[in-house]
Structures are given as structure tokens and as C-alpha cells.
Specification:
266 residues; six-stranded mixed sheet; globular; binds adenosine-5'-triphosphate; binds magnesium ion; ATP hydrolysis activity; AAA+_ATPase
Length: 266
């Protein structure tokens, strides 16, 4: 059995009277890449918010390294766990560099604002996300993809051993999608960081995830290694869509070909 990084125990999440997640249990393995999938509105972002302590559960608890996150101090949580929300909003007028610097806030003290470590973490985050040249640009003047990379840089500057990302590849062109997923893969494989993310691209999810979790009907519908979990039946149950399943000849991971309309050659 692998070690557990995050334990979600019997959690119920609601907005007013509307329950989105009901008595859900989930163990997220340490040092692995876990990907949440599911239909729009099934509660993936809501669950991620609760794991990051941005949303208080009605019942149940979330444990990070066996500690109840609701009982931890904010700065302590911020040193251990970073989250990139689905539609982050930057304060008006900030530059990329100023935005990314926010990631260092858990490490700042009143007396020691600047350190070599601070500068190194900042430059590293800008370099790996390809944002160094754009660091003086206003965040609002960036393209959707550039802005997304600036947010990912902020996340990396926080230098936490758990990183949660809600659809990190949204707005990114194919090159940048792979670049970001490769980067997260390296952070996982080389630095043993635990990555938890929401992805809509099933094929990329199958390629990068060690552990796949499908959310449906307010609960975990099924979970496991993508090669076991991605079957015609499961895709039909999760998405209400018929598909064919193939295999990526290079990676050996499942590929999902959805049914539907389209051009047919021959
Ligand atoms: N702040 C909110 N107030 C009220 N209802 C909300 C709020 N945020 C989300 N919801 C509702 O909760 C449900 C789950 O939303 P959530 O954003 O978690 O879904 P999701 O799985 O992330 O969907 P998507 O794939 O579209 O991002 C939806 O029905 C949504 O309308
Ligand atoms: Mg969402």
C-alpha cells in the first residue's frame, strides 16, 4: 500500500441548500499524480476547494499528512499546499512578477523581505513557465495562455510539496499544454511532489495520472489506474457518452475516441 498524503473523510459540501458532494471519502496517494474527471458541474472544483481549505465542509474533514487542515494555521497550510483555481482573478494593475511574488508570501517576515532563496524561487518559477520575458507586463494585457502560465508560476513560487490545479491546461495551445503537464510530471517524478489536478482531456489524463478519480452523483464513482478504469462502460456511465477505447502506441495508455458526428474519410 502506498502512503496517503491527503485523506478526505466523509465530506459533505453544499452551497446554501444545494448539496454538491455528499459523504465522500477519498485517499490521495503521496508522491503521485492524481487527476479528477467528471461532467461539468459534478463538483470537481468544489472538492478541490475543500481540500485546499477554501471551502468549509458541512460535515467531515480533510487531513493533510494526518493533520486536520481546519486546525492548521493559514501560513502553515500555504507552505504545504498550493492551489491554482479554475478562474483565478488577479488584482488590477499588477505585473507578472508582482503576481508571482505573491507565491512567496508564506515565507515572508516583516524584517526579512528579501533573501537569495526568495529570488531563486521567483526566477525558477518564471523560467520554467517561460514567463521571464513577460515579467514586466501587466497581467491583464496577457493572452489567456500567458496568463494561465503566470498563475502556474505563482503556484510554483510557493514551493509546496502538494500542488492542486483546476484545469491547468485551459487556454493553452498544444505545445504549452504538454509543457505544463511535463513540468508537473517532472515536479512529481524528480522532486516527489504530490500533484492533484482536474483535467477534461481524458487522453492526457490517462497519460499523466497514476491515479484517476471520477466524480459522479456527489460521490467518487470509480477510481484507480487509468488503464484499469477507462473502459467503454465507465466512460458511458461517467459522461453519458458512447466511445471506443484504444491504446497510445508510444505510452501504452488508454485513448478514448468518442462517438458522435463528424466527417468520415472513405
Ligand atoms: N459559489 C457557488 N455558489 C453556488 N453554487 C455553486 C457555486 N460554485 C459552484 N456551484 C454549483 O455547484 C455545482 C458543482 O460546481 P463545480 O464548480 O464544483 O463543478 P465542476 O465539476 O468543477 O464543473 P466544471 O467541469 O464545469 O468546472 C454546480 O452545480 C455549480 O453550479
Ligand atoms: Mg470546475
Amino acid at each position: 500500500m502506498c502512503e496517503i498524503k491527503i485523506n478526505v473523510k466523509d465530506i459533505t459540501l453544499s452551497y446554501g441548500d444545494s448539496t454538491v458532494i455528499d459523504s465522500l471519502n477519498l485517499a490521495i496517494p503521496k508522491g503521485k499524480i492524481t487527476v479528477f474527471i467528471g461532467r461539468n458541474g459534478c463538483g470537481k472544483s468544489t472538492l478541490l476547494h475543500a481540500i485546499a481549505r477554501l471551502l468549509k465542509p458541512q460535515t467531515g474533514s480533510v487531513f493533510l499528512d494526518d493533520r486536520n487542515i481546519l486546525k492548521m494555521k493559514s501560513k502553515e497550510v500555504a507552505k504545504k499546499l498550493a492551489i491554482l483555481p479554475q478562474s483565478p482573478i488577479a488584482p488590477e494593475g499588477v505585473t507578472v512578477e508582482q503576481l508571482v511574488k505573491q507565491g512567496r508570501y508564506p515565507y515572508q517576515s516583516t524584517f526579512k523581505q528579501w533573501t537569495m532563496e526568495y529570488e531563486t524561487a521567483l526566477n525558477h518559477a518564471l523560467t520554467v513557465t517561460n514567463m521571464t520575458e513577460l515579467k514586466d507586463r501587466n497581467v491583464y494585457e496577457l493572452s489567456g495562455g500567458q496568463r494561465q502560465r503566470a498563475w502556474i508560476a505563482l503556484n510554483l513560487a510557493q514551493n509546496t510539496d502538494t500542488i492542486l490545479l483546476d484545469e491547468p491546461t485551459t487556454y493553452l495551445d498544444l505545445t504549452h499544454q504538454i509543457e505544463i503537464l511535463d513540468l508537473l510530471y517532472d515536479l512529481n517524478r524528480e522532486e516527489n511532489r504530490t500533484i492533484v489536478m482536474v483535467l477534461h482531456d481524458i487522453n492526457l489524463a490517462c497519460r499523466y495520472a497514476d491515479h484517476l478519480v471520477a466524480i459522479k452523483n456527489q460521490k467518487v464513482y470509480c477510481q484507480g489506474a487509468p488503464e484499469k478504469m477507462i473502459t467503454r462502460e465507465n466512460i458511458e456511465h461517467i459522461y453519458g457518452l458512447k466511445c471506443r477505447i484504444g491504446v497510445d502506441s508510444q505510452f501504452g495508455t488508454p485513448i478514448c475516441f468518442p462517438d458522435g458526428k463528424g466527417r468520415k474519410i472513405n
